Amino acid sequence: SPLPLIVNTWSGPFTSATDAAFLSLANSSNALDAVQAGCQACQNNQCDHTVGFGGSPDESCETTLDALIIDGETLNAGAVANLRRVKDAIGVARHVLDYTQHTLLAGEQATQFALENGFEEESLSTKDSLKTCYGWRKNHCQPNYRLNVHPDPFSSCGPYSPLLSSISSTTTSATSSISQPHSSSSNSQQSSHD
Amino acid sequence: TLSLIALHPSSSMAACTTTNGASHKIPGRVGDGPIPGSGSYVDSTVGGCGATGDGDIMMRFLPCYQAVESLRRGLTPQQAADDAVRRILARYPDAKTGVVVVDNRGEHAAAASGWEFSYSYRSGGMERTEVVRVKSL
To answer: Does the beta-carbon distance from B3 to A58 stay under 8 Å?
Structure first.
C-alpha cells in the first residue's frame, strides 16, 4: 500500500515539509495535523525564501503571509491573507478553521485574531528581506506591478497617480483585458511569483 | 509557495498552502495561496491538489478546484493536472504554473508551464522523500 502519502510542490528545501508531514502521519496523527506540521516546517525553515518570514517584501518592504488549510473530510477550511507581524500563518489559519465559522480572515484584523488566540506579534522582516527591498528601490523599483499610472512604473518609483484615459480604455472591454493582460506575465523582466 | 496534500491510511485527506506571496507586490495584494480551490483543494472522496505560480493569474482559474472536479468526473491525476494548466495557458500563454494532483488511492502527477516545476512525495515504505521533475506543457 502506498499509504500514508504526502505530496507537495517543489523540491530542495521543500522536502523538509514532506518529511515533517510524513513523520506526523507515521506517528498516527490525522491528515489535518500532518499538513499543518508540513507547512510549519517550511515556514520555520523559510523554504526558498518564498515561505515564512523574511521573504518577498512588498513595495513598503514589509513581509506579509498567506495560508490555507482544508479538511478533505468535511470541506471545512481556514485561511489568512495579508497576515502582518505573525510568523505562524498556517497555525492562525488552523485557528480560523477550528474556532470560527468563517473561511478567510485578512490583514490587520487577521493579526488581531491571531493575537487574541495567543500568537506572538513580531516583525517578519530580516536583514535579507530589507536588503532585497532596498535593492529594488535602488533599481528604480523594477520589476513593478503598477499599471496605467504616472510616473511610468516600468522605469520609475512612486508615488503613483492614475492615468484616467488609460483606465477607461482597459476597463471597457473585459474580453481584451483577459486575453491580453497588462499584468506581471506581460512584463518580461518580471521574475517574481507566488 | 508550499502546497501540500496528505492522504492518511484511513483514506482521509487534507491540504494546506503557505506563502509570503510575490516580491515587490503592492501593499495589500493577496495571491492565490489562501484561496480555496486555487492554492490548494481537497475532497477525501476523490483527491487533492496543490498549486503554485503567477498567483494573480492562477486565482482567476481556481486550478485546484478544477483538477479535483476533473478527478470526480473520472480523469486520472495526470489528465486532471494537464487540463487545469491548459485552461490557464489558453488565456495566458506565458503563465508560470505548477499543479500537482493526488487521487484518493495515492496516484499522483503534475503539470506545469513557463518553468521547470518539481514536486516531492513520500509514501509508506519509502525511507526518504523522492522528487519528480515536471516538464512544461
So the answer is: no
Q: Which of B1, B17, B52, B97 is catalytic?
A: B1
Cα separation, A28 vs A64, whole angstroms: 33
Does A185 sit within 8 Å of B119, measured CB to CB?
no
Report yes or no: A88 and A119 within 8 Å, Cβ to Cβ.
yes
Q: What is the C-alpha to C-alpha distance for residues A159 and A146, in angstroms, rounded to an integer?
A: 11
In sequence order, the β-bridge partners of residue B102 are B48, B108
Contacts of B118 (CB under 8 A, 6+ apart): A10, A11, B131, B132, B133, B134
Rg (CA), chain A: 20
Cα separations (Å) of A75 from A192, B7, B14, B45, B81? 31, 15, 9, 11, 21
Nearest chain B Cα distance for residue A86, angstroms: 12
Per residue in A82-131, pLDDT tens? 999 999 999 999 999 999 999 999 999 999 999 999 999 999 999 999 99
Residue from B11, B12, B13, B24 whose CB has the most chain A CBs within 10 Å, to mutate: B24
A10, B52 contact by CB (below 8 A): yes
Q: Give CA B30 to chain center in angstroms.
A: 18
Of the candidates B30, B49, B27, B23, the one whose C-alpha atom is nearest the C-alpha of residue B102 is B49
Q: What is the pLDDT of residues B54-94, one digit of tens each?
A: 999 999 999 999 999 999 999 999 999 999 999 999 999 99
Of B14, B30, B106, the CB nearest to A72: B14
Q: Beta strands B47-53 and B40-43: pairing type? A: antiparallel
C-alpha cell at B45: 472522496
Q: How many CB atoms lie within 10 A of CB A102?
A: 12
Could you confirm whether B1 is annotated as catalytic?
yes
Dist. CA B19–CA B1, nearest whole Å = 5
